[in-house]
Amino acid sequence: MAVVNGLDTDKLVSVVEAVKQNWEAGKTVWKASTNWKGAFKVETGSRDFKIGVDEPELLCGTNTAANPVELVLQAFGACLTIGYVMNAAVRGIKIDDLKVDVEGEIDLPGFLGLEAPEKYNMAKLPGYKNITANVKIASSNADKKTLEDLHKHVIGTSPVGLTLSRPVNVNVNLV
User: Fold this and answer.
1) 152 with 143: CB under 8 angstroms?
2) 77 touches 120 (CB < 8 A)
3) How confident is the model at residue 115 (pLDDT cuts 50, 70, 90)?
4) Does position 123 have pLDDT exceeding 80, yes or no?
5) What is the mean pLDDT of residues 131-154?
6) pTM metric for this prediction
7) Closest CA to 155 of 129, 135, 130
8) 65 close to 52: Cβ distance less than 8 angstroms
C-alpha cells in the first residue's frame, strides 16, 4: 500500500478503476437537509454530520456560525484542497503545505429585495458576482511546472468550482 499525503493511493486508483468498469457507479446523488433553530440559526447536515449556520450581526444575526454564502466559499476551498491532495497523491507529489484562500463579492441590495441606484453598479440579483481563490502549495518533490500541471487539472475537475461557474438547474418545491 502506497500512502502519499495521508491517502492510500492504491485505494484511490481502485475507485477510479471501479468507475471505469461500471459507469453507472459514477452517477451519484448527494443529500443535505436543514432545520430552523430560531432567529437566523439553522442546523444543516449531510449523512451524520451537522453544521451550524447563522448570519453576522451586520445582517441581524447572532454571529454564532458562518452564513450560507460563506459556506459556499468554504465548500469551494475544501473541494479544491481535496482535489489537490488527491491528485497529488496519485501522481506521487508530496504536499508539504497547502492553503486556499477564497473570497467573493456580493451586493446586498438584491438579497434585501432592493434595487440600488445605477451609480453604485450593484447587481439586481443576489449572489456572488466574482469569486477568487488563491492557492499556495509547497512540495518538497515537485517543481513549478509539475505544480502548474496539477493546478490546471484540479481547477478543471473541481465539482464545486465547476458548479459555481456554470448554470445549474435548480428546482425548489413547496411540499
Assistant:
1) no
2) no
3) confident
4) no
5) 98
6) 0.92
7) 135
8) yes
